[in-house]
Design brief:
With 467 residues, the chain is an alpha/beta fold. The protein is built from 15 helices and 13 strands.
Length: 467
């Protein structure tokens, strides 16, 4: 039973429901795995061993009594430390919030519990989740299981490393600029940034009502080693919650045209360079889709570079307005990246901010019209391989290069679109994931295509950390 940590969330739930294994055994196997590998990775910052074992015992009693079971009954999961979880600090990776213990779960944590899942640990994130490299001023650096000298991505990097190394079969993260997908490509796992409004978002720390970009662009979602578990997680998390006025009851199955699904394959996206090995993985993913019956096109979406620049302008304007508040809470390294990022973007006055929002709406319309004829956009997730620790914060030029390499993830945030990441193999011994972005509320199409790519190119990501 020590190898239970190798199994997926859906597999474990089925075994527990059939009585083939107990929840206690599953939880103990994952706790042992955490003890074995977390000291090498620093992916989990808090391990909830006593609480998880008590919940597992209750889950096993429910199975024995023949009670109705949820789809993840008795299965452990992990939670990014900037999501509210009862009894835990929503610390956002900074010492100033180390004692910010909350009395109520975020909707996504609440729904995982309702599905029978058991919280087993909290995962690391960078200061205020404003970086795609996970190095927390409160808990330190998370290492990539594939290469200890490279980033695990961010800001959900602790989740990515924990999942890839078998500490957890499924986890929760969030995404305002690729934060569910950046760690997925770096760590060789799968994830989805759901459509805006599909999964409710609400948190008490630092406050439930942020500036406009923090209302319209962030999304919470599932991460796992396999696409099937990401889909299972999304099914559990989806649906409106009264605490989130933007959440809606969107159908989980999107309409299908009476034609083969079309995918635009863009291995070299505009706006910068792409590592040749990364581009090759995109081409291979496109070939896998073509072999499965997808129509493949080469023409990318309209105004791609303008879309990326508008995301940057939107988020940087609001972060700049908050810098006096959040800057003093951040470590020198984290604040250095923030300062370098803001240095390359122009401050917006009210007229400029209004114009930026008008541009956003225009871009949303143009992409929606394009997606009427093209179902999916296939691109790299990152256009370069995971960088060495601290590379992103060394200078303003490096900060700009960081934004360049992540340029494919940001359109989905600006436009509210679903965007799934799936691994496609290794380049120079590190994982490379591709990105499937679709029209709003066509989350199912992105996951369907991701599953096809996974079946052909998938990576066996349940690894012992490399040294």
């Amino acid at each position: 039973m020590d190898e239970l940590w190798r199994l997926g969330a859906g597999e474990l739930a089925a075994m527990i429901a059939k009585g083939e294994v107990s929840s206690a055994e599953v939880v103990d196997a994952h706790l042992a795995r955490i003890d074995a590998v977390n000291p090498k990775l620093n992916a989990l910052t808090q391990v909830l061993a006593d609480e998880a074992r008590a919940s597992a015992a209750a889950a096993d009693r429910a199975v024995a009594a023949g009670e109705p079971l949820g789809p993840l009954h008795g299965v452990p999961f992990t939670v990014k430390q900037n999501l509210d979880q009862v009894g835990c600090a929503t610390n956002w990776g900074v010492p100033a919030l180390a004692e910010a213990v909350v009395p109520v779960d975020a909707p996504v944590v609440e729904r995982m519990r309702a599905a029978g899942a058991i919280p087993i640990g909290r995962s690391n994130c960078p200061d205020m989740a404003l970086r795609i490299h996970t190095d927390s001023g409160l808990f330190g650096l998370t290492r990539n299981p594939w290469d200890p000298d490279r980033t695990a991505g961010g800001s959900s990097g602790g989740e990515g490393a924990a999942l890839a190394s078998g500490m957890s079969p499924i986890g929760l993260g969030n995404d305002i600029g690729g934060s569910l997908r950046n760690p997925a490509t770096c760590c060789g796992i799968a994830s989805i940034k759901p459509s805006a409004g599909r999964v409710p978002s609400y948190g008490l720390v630092p406050g439930p009502d942020g500036p406009l970009s923090f209302q319209l662009m962030p999304v919470e979602g599932p991460m796992a080693r396999r696409v099937a578990d990401v889909r299972l997680g999304l099914d559990i998390l989806a649906g409106p919650d009264r605490r989130d006025p933007y959440s809606v009851p969107a159908p989980m199955v999107s309409p299908r045209a009476r034609r083969p699904l079309r995918v635009a394959v863009v291995p070299h996206p505009p706006g910068g360079n792409t590592h040749p090995g990364v581009a090759d993985r995109v081409v291979a993913a496109g070939e896998a889709l073509a072999a499965a019956g997808y129509e493949v096109a080469a023409e990318g979406p309209p105004r791609f570079e303008e879309t990326v620049a508008t995301w940057d302008a939107f988020l940087s304007a609001d972060v700049r307005a908050m810098e006096a508040l959040i800057g003093p809470m951040m470590s020198e390294d984290a604040h250095g990246f923030l300062t370098n990022w803001l240095a390359h973007s122009e401050p917006l006055d009210l007229a400029g901010y209004t114009q930026m929002l008008m541009t956003r709406q225009s871009l949303m319309r143009d992409w929606a019209l394009w997606l009427a004829d093209v179902d999916l956009l296939l691109t790299p997730t990152w256009t370069q391989l995971p960088f060495p620790h601290g590379w992103d914060s060394m200078s303003a030029e490096r900060a700009a290069a960081t934004l360049e390499l992540m340029r494919c993830v940001t359109p989905a945030n600006l436009l509210g679109l679903p965007s799934a990441c799936v691994p496609t193999g290794l380049v120079d011994r590190v994982p490379v994931g591709v990105l499937l972005t679709g029209e709003r509320f066509a989350d199912d199409k992105t996951l369907d295509a991701a599953a096809v790519i996974e079946a052909t190119l998938g990576l066996d990501t349940r690894i012992d950390p490399r040294t």
